[in-house]
Each structure stands twice: as C-alpha cells, then as structure tokens.
Design brief:
Strand content: 25-35%
Shape: globular
Oligomer: single chain
Helix content: 40-55%
Largest sheet: 5 strands, mixed
Number of strands: 18
Order of helices and strands: EEEEEHEEHEEEHEHHEEEHHEEHEHEHH
Strand order of the largest sheet: 3-2-1-6-11
Number of helices: 11
Radius of gyration: 25 Å
Distance between the termini: 51 Å
Length: 419
C-alpha cells in the first residue's frame, strides 16, 4: 500500500462500510473506493459474536482491496485502517488547566501555551475507560475567551478541554477483531461517527454559533456539539433505528427483521400529525399465513414512541446549558435521519430548527447520500490530517538527525585535528 493511501472501516450492526483514499500534501483527500458489506455479530455497538464480526470484516476488506486494486491498476495491501465505532457508549468530561503569568511584563508566550496543552494531554481517565480523543475547546486570558493567547497580556491563562472516552474492554475487543482479520489500528485511529460527520458537515459559521450534529445510526445514536468553533460535547447511547425495527417486528409479528425494516421504511413516520387512522396497510405475510393489515397510524405510533424516547434521552444527557448554545440548530446524519418526519420530531423535542446534513466533496459516491457517508468521509479526512502530521514530525526528526549528524562529524573532525 502506498504511503499516501489511507483506509477506513465503519462497523455497524446490520452493515459495514469501508473506504480507501489518498491524502495529498495540501491536506486534501481523494476518494479511491467505497464498499459495503452485511454485518453480523454486533448489537448496540457491542461485539456479541466475535467469529461473525471477524468474518464480516474479512469479507469487507476483501471487497475493499479488490475495488481499490481495480481503481489503481496496481497491487494493494491494506494493513492499517482507521475505525469508526461507538463500542456501546461514548462519554466526555470537561477539564480546565490554569496557570498564572509569572513574567514581569505579563506577556503570554508560546511556551506558556505549550505547557498548558501538555498538562491537558496528561489528564488521566479512570482505569476501566479508554481515552479516544482529547479536544482543546477554549482559551481564556483573565476570563476572556480568545483564539490565540500567545503575545497577549494578562495575569492568568486558562485552557478548557474535552476528554472523550469509552469502556476499555469493549473497545479492545474491536482492536482484537481487526488484528484477527489481519489489519491493525490503534487508539489514535478510532473515531466517533458524530464527531467526524460534524467536522466535515458543519461549516465554520455553524461551528461558531453552536450546532448539534446528531447521528441516528442503526445500533447507536451519537452526537457532537460545536460552539465558538470548538467541540463542547460528544456522546453516544446504545439505542438506534434497529430498536424501532425490533419494536415493529414484535408488535406486528412481521416474521423477520427484513420485513419489519421494510414496514418501517415504507409506512413508518416519526410524527403522527396528519396520519389518517382509517388508512390501513398490508403487513408482511409469512409463508402459508393469512393476509393481514394494520392501521397506518398504529405503525406510526410505534416508530414515534421509540424515536421520541431516544431523542429525549439525548436531550437530557446534553442538558439545558448545552442546548442554550445551539444558535445553529440541529443537523441530522445516519440512516435514521431519512425516516419520514424525523426532522420535524427533532424540532418538536429540542425546540430548535433541524435539517439533514449536506456535503460537497466532489465525489458522487459521498455527496449523493451524505446522511449515510458523512461519518466515513470525515474519518478519511481526519486520518489524512493524522498521517500528514505524523509525516511532518518524521521529516523534522530526520532533519534534526541529519543536522545533528553533520554537527557531530564536524565536532569530531575538529577534535581529531587538535589531538
């Protein structure tokens, strides 16, 4: 695999997605291939059947490698991937680091900023949790928020940050599965769907005035809130669209998950307004069974009840302080966002304007269905930035090593001539 090649895998309950791309030196990303694969062995973002998950990942990687090879007309070996998952649930904690400005002139230096960043990076999480992201949110000089504190004057410098974490045992099982499927990843390459979708799906103005990106996935619902240009809240719960499907299957005896899913997509509605209770719809019929119908409103009531419950849980977890920051409203991603009436129900629950995510990447495979691909594309972009940063660090170390080597040779040559 070429050094500029990157690969991302998104693990979902019913389906997995994979993509490869190439990062360029200007920071942009070129999409190479995008594939999907039915998934099994996951429930609520948690691995419940390791063998089935390994098999699904191997099949996905086989498709991804073949399509990438075809696109590049060259041998391809995908050995390292970035991973999109929620491992059941994601939480975040805010942390604050403060230091007095000790210099006589009270000017803040780059070294002062670097020290606070170092302290933030060293904040631990509890033993049973694994940190997957640390985000610097806001700088303050004497309690006044600023973007670049270096070279400003003040008595106190403060840095606020956000630590995103999940259960170590569940997350490590994902890493074990990837290793068994003959690919590797690490904690630096693990992303939350809502975070990556928000980073590419919200423009700078939305990030400034405050916007909630809500990813309605099949097995989990995750979110990311931007305000003043930084992330202030990240989280997920193990409830998603598959729970609505299961409710329909149990309530109407559809006989299979696929039949219940079709019922949800064809006749389900997140809102009840305007639905005529006299209208009836055909229910899936098992082989040899009698034809059955159900009230259209009764189907909508099941969908509405589960989704409204999910949204209210998210609202409670966010809290009023975060909700008051949402000047830009709410943007939806994930397959659940395409459910009829989803945006209207979100507006009713949160009391904020709501719209579907949009992307303009220039790649039709991404842009024509952004609710489905935004998180994956965002992970490709974040991986590209990570690789470019690592490459720059390697170059700097190499330059230092060459410079040090030249200086050492010069020193020893001078020392030898004196002896």
């Amino acid at each position: 695999m070429a050094s500029s090649m990157i690969a991302v895998v998104e693990m979902g309950t019913s389906r997995m997605l994979g993509a490869t791309g190439e990062y360029l030196q200007d920071g942009s990303v070129r999409l190479i291939s995008l594939v999907s694969q039915p998934s099994s062995g996951l429930r609520g973002g948690v691995i419940i059947d390791r063998d089935n998950v390994v098999r699904s990942v191997q099949e996905l990687l086989g498709k991804l490698q073949a399509k990438t090879k075809e696109a590049l007309n060259a041998k391809v070996d995908i050995a390292t991937v970035s991973l999109l998952c929620t491992s059941g649930e994601i939480s975040c904690d805010t942390c604050t680091k403060i230091m007095p400005i000790a210099s006589p002139d009270h000017y803040i230096t780059e070294e002062d900023c670097a020290l606070l960043i170092k302290q933030l990076n060293e904040v631990p999480v509890s033993p049973e949790r694994q940190m997957i992201a640390k985000v610097r949110t806001n700088w303050f000089v004497d309690s006044v928020r600023c973007d670049k504190p270096a070279n400003l004057k003040g008595g106190e410098l403060m840095l606020q940050g956000l630590i995103v974490h999940t259960l170590s045992s569940r997350l490590n099982l994902f890493l074990d599965v990837l290793e068994e499927a003959n690919v590797e990843t690490d904690y630096e390459r693990i992303y939350v769907p809502a975070m990556t979708a928000a980073q590419v799906g919200l423009d700078k103005e939305q990030q400034r005035i405050g916007t909630l990106l809500l990813d309605l996935g099949g097995d989990t619902t995750s979110w990311c809130v931007f305000h003043n240009g930084g992330i202030i809240s990240v989280g997920s719960i193990p409830i998603g669209g598959d729970h609505i499907t299961n409710d329909l299957m149990a309530g109407f005896c559809t006989g299979s998950t696929m039949s219940a899913e079709n019922l949800k997509r064809m006749h389900g509605s997140a809102v009840l307004d305007g639905i005529d209770s006299s209208v009836r719809v055909k229910l899936p019929t098992e082989l040899g069974g009698e034809a059955r119908t159900a009230s259209l409103r009764s189907v909508a009531m099941v969908v509405n009840a589960r989704l409204e419950e999910t949204l209210n849980i998210v609202r409670e977890l966010l809290g009023e302080q975060v909700l008051d920051c949402l000047g830009g409203g709410i943007v939806l991603s994930g397959n659940g966002s395409l459910l009829n009436g989803a945006t209207r129900l979100v507006e009713q629950v949160f009391g904020k304007p709501c719209s579907l995510i949009r992307l303009e990447t220039g790649f039709a495979e991404i842009d024509r269905n952004p609710t489905d691909t935004a998180a994956l594309w965002g992970a490709l972009v974040q991986t590209a930035r990570y690789e470019l940063h690592s490459e720059l660090q390697r170059r700097e170390r190499g330059l230092f090593k060459r410079l040090f080597g030249w200086m050492a040779d010069f020193f020893f040559e001078q020392g030898g001539s004196e002896k």
